[in-house]
Amino acid sequence: MTNGIFISFEGPDGAGKTTALNTLLPMLEAKTTKEIITTREPGGSPIAEKIRDLILDVKNLEMDDRTEALLYAAQRRQHLVDRILPALEADKIVLSDRFVDSSIAYQGGGRQIGEAEVKSINDFAIEDTMPELTVYFDIPSEVGLQRIKKDRDGQQDRLEKEKLEFHQRVRHTYLDLQAQDPKRIKVINANQDPTQVVEDVLELILTKFPQAFSK
């Protein structure tokens, strides 16, 4: 058993979850005595970061979809044992930019290789370690892709370059996951002013964990 708090941030490409997480960090730190660490997937630890580079490299167009799913599960396992579990055992708060739901949405739904199949290999990787709260940033796929093109000046990784239909399947899978697990996965409207998005997420976290944060 761990003593810390594990929160994941999820959403389609262009939803703004990474920006929101970075903005939220000092706000949350001001309201708790616990240490907060932020991390990301794919990556988050040295070996996992090397796997990240392999997965997202735009040159690896020949990568098989199942190979991709297995690589995501592999980096997740390494990330978990290197970074997440030690932090939770030390009574810290972990904010992770993506976790298991991303694989189910992107590889299971987006790649259409099966949500149950992707969940199975990730169950093996994480050994029942799941976030207590998952903040899902929802945004129409068209809007998210437009944001990426505008903000990154055409610089996109291998998954971001996929067609609109791929990203729509990803979003629909996320929404299905939320419907299946509404207690853990909470929806935030990411298609609104970024300041309001941050305020909504902050209120959600403070309400969910009153024992750790003061209002």
Topology:
Layout: E1 5-10, H1 17-29, E2 36-40, H2 46-56, H3 65-89, E3 93-97, H4 100-110, H5 115-126, E4 133-138, H6 141-151, H7 164-180, E5 185-189, H8 194-208
Parallel strand pairs: 1-3, 1-4, 2-3, 4-5
Helix pairs in contact: 1-8, 2-3, 3-4, 3-5, 4-5, 4-7
Number of strands: 5
Count of domains: 1
- Principal-axis shape equals globular
CATH top level class name:
Alpha Beta
For CATH, the homologous superfamily is named as P-loop containing nucleotide triphosphate hydrolases
Relative helix content: 40-55%
Question: Overall pLDDT, averaged?
Answer: 94
Radius of gyration: 16 Å
Main sheet strand line-up: 2-3-1-4-5
- CATH architecture identity: 3-Layer(aba) Sandwich
CATH topology: Rossmann fold
Strand content: 5-15%
Number of helices: 8
Structural class: alpha/beta
Distance between the termini: 27 Å
The succession of helices and strands, N to C, reads EHEHHEHHEHHEH
Ranges where pLDDT stays below 50 over 5 or more residues in a row are: none
